[in-house]
Amino acid sequence: MDRIVAFPEAEAALIASMPSNLLHRMVVNLVQDSKRAKMKNRESRAMIEMLESALQGARRDVAQLESARDWAAISRARMEEQRHVSDRLQRELDTTKTALSSAELENQKLRAKVESSEKKLLRLEAKVRRRLLVAYIFHDFIYFIPWFRQINSLKAEKREFKIEAHRRQMELSNQLLSAHNSRVAASSEKARLSRSFKERRRSEEDTRRSKRSPTDGSSNSTTSNTSTQQRHSLTYHERPHAEGSKIPYPKS
């Protein structure tokens, strides 16, 4: 056939001398070869389009993974910073607790001093009452002036002890409350960063999954279209018989 295409004039006699049955078979084979070549070409084009779409999806996945990796690095740095802050606040809280325990010991000592002062005051008041009774009997009040002064000084010392103990207790309570609030804020910030990182990863996975599903559908539709075209391309159409020709054409 290549010689016939290349030299049509020289091969005209050969074509005229060939049997009509053989000639028609050669024509049918050429038509079938052409259809098979077209079908393979369509399949190749469909495969190329499917591979290009898969490549684009892979590039999108790579870009999303790179962004997720960058976000993970940033989140790890922030979480590490929050961990250092939490450790520092924990140390401050431990220091405050130690100071609170020492202040409680000092308060206990102050309470003991107050109790001893109260006991001394009660004893002095009892002595004063007895001496007042004696003085009332003997009309001698000048002797009891130092006792009154000592009682007043003990009362003033008792009031000062109570005020100092209350002030220290309030200061340490405020320090402990501020340290606890700082620790709670650091813990909530750490939890928020972890939750935002997980939500971002989940949204990226959902986006990647949603972008991948239309590609699968397009590949399935391309495959179904290819198979449909293949079925239609294998059909033959009925041709009119030439006069005097006995070539059996395939039925449609």
Keywords:
252 residues, 87% helix, Helix Hairpins
Description:
It contains 4 helices and no strands. It is rod-shaped, with a radius of gyration of 53 Å. About 3% of the residues have low confidence. Helix 3 packs antiparallel against helix 4. The chain is mostly helical and 252 residues long. It has a domain of 171 residues: Helix Hairpins (Orthogonal Bundle).
Separation of termini?
Answer: 27 Å
Mind telling me the CATH class of the domain at 58-228?
Mainly Alpha
Query: Which fold does the CATH topology of the domain at 58-228 refer to?
Result: Helix Hairpins
Please give the count of helices. 4
Please report which band the strand proportion falls in: under 5%, 5-15%, 15-25%, 25-35%, 35-45% or over 45%. under 5%
Q: Which range best describes the helical content: under 10%, 10-25%, 25-40%, 40-55%, 55-70% or over 70%?
A: over 70%
Our Rg estimate from Cα atoms comes to: 53 Å
- Helix and strand pattern: HHHH
Query: What is the mean predicted local confidence, pLDDT?
Result: 74
DSSP, total strands: 0
Largest sheet: none
Any idea what the CATH architecture of the domain at 58-228 is? Answer: Orthogonal Bundle
- What are the low-pLDDT stretches, counting only 5+ consecutive residues below 50? 231-237
What oligomeric state do these chains adopt?
A: single chain
Indicate the overall shape: rod-shaped
Helix/strand class = mainly alpha
